[in-house]
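During the first year of the project, the team set up a workflow for recording each protein of interest as an amino acid sequence followed immediately by a discrete structure-token representation. This format lets reviewers and collaborators read both layers of information side by side without switching files. As required by the reporting guidelines, we include two representative entries from the current panel. The first entry is reproduced here exactly as it appears in our internal archive.
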Amino acid sequence: MCTTDEKLNICLIVDDGVIYEFNKTINENSIIHTAKSIEDILINNNAKASKIKNVYEILIEIMQNILNYSYGNIDLSDNRKEATGSISLSYKSEKDVYLLQTCNLVDADQKEEIKDRLYKVRDLDDKQLRKLARQKMRSREDNHEKGAGLGFITIARKCSEPIFVEFTDIGNKIEQVIFKFVI
């Protein structure tokens, strides 16, 4: 179970050894700083350019999702927000994959919508995902003030395995949600 205090926990692990770890409250500035820091670490460790790009883009997308949709996110002045959650990035050398895992809290009412959106994309191939993205952009069926509803499609196209999600009821109509993305 993850903890969600006032900080965002991010940890980078290679084959069970932590090589990078820090805590931050998630906001627009920390999203950019965190993604850039992790990108720099991957570049300095000679990661493949395609993996770096995919990790970077998925990290940005999931941090924006935590910021916008987490239970208890805080609206600040000037239309800005802050939120809490945890993120870990590990590398499995035997498979040459990165595992990006997130944990945060959501309203129980969001659980079915998250599952529905995820299950619509999790078993589609890249061609089917591109087609679905074009359809959504043309129809604007999932457009909202925070985007076009393309987040899971974008992430699924960059993952090498289906996106994993797990919910745990923690009471008071709040769910802990854990996502795992294999890149």
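The second entry, processed by the same pipeline in the following quarter, appears below.
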Amino acid sequence: MNSPLYPVRAILLVLLLVTGCSNTDSSSSDPVKTETPDSQDASADAESLKDPQVATTEKAPTKEEIVEAHLKAMGGVDVLKTIQTVVKVSAMQTQDATGSAEGKVTETFDLVADLGRIDLDLGTYQESKGWRKQQGWKQTSAEPLRALTAEELALDKIGMPISAVYSVFDAFGIDAFLPPSRARLNGQDCIKLNFMGSPMDIIINDQTKLIQAFQIADFMRITFSDYRDVQGVMMAYKTKVEIKPSNQTLIIEVESIEINSKLDPAKLEKPGN
């Protein structure tokens, strides 16, 4: 594997296994195609070559409508608010031009106390990182213990394991979101949603109202599949990460999820405390 840091950065930006989505898995590296009133008619023929269903010309929903529909599809705000702790164990495989690697990812979150920890073991490379409120730390098999930067910490905390849309809405309200637009992804009608200050597109499946993908243009796409009801909340059990600069693919498959289990605070502490 060319650089072990690529999967780590992917996990940060991916909002690792954050949300439930549609039953669509990505195998294409084409960018998300956004439908605008000027482009819909011109793009319909080209799109129909890939899928017999031509993209709808229906007006995009408002941000209030799509956020409300997504949260309802996730299980509802009342159910989402009951989640206090999450422990998730996943298997991860990486593949690039130099070879492949596989390992484990363990994520532990205390959402009430604002504590989190993510441990990655790829055999020849290990990484641990965590935070308590606004103080974060990180250490790897190639790097000694250090503090997380504000940017790293923000990315990790947005990745807390419910829904990026819910996390932003709960923290900042509906005004944090920009007006959505119609889009197509892998032959599926979707809604593209963005929030202020983020380069990432959130692609919501128009049928399921669940997140189908995250994408940063010309850098990375993350798609989700195998969604299951976990105590009333839809969670993805499979994530595919495609990183364009390194031509690298990661497949992350959840092996177990525990919600509202009792956590050992010592396991969330910064090493050496």
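For the second entry, the following points were noted during internal review. Residues 1-31, 34-55 have pLDDT under 50 and may be disordered. The first strand starts at residue 33 and ends at 35. Both points are flagged for discussion at the upcoming steering committee meeting.
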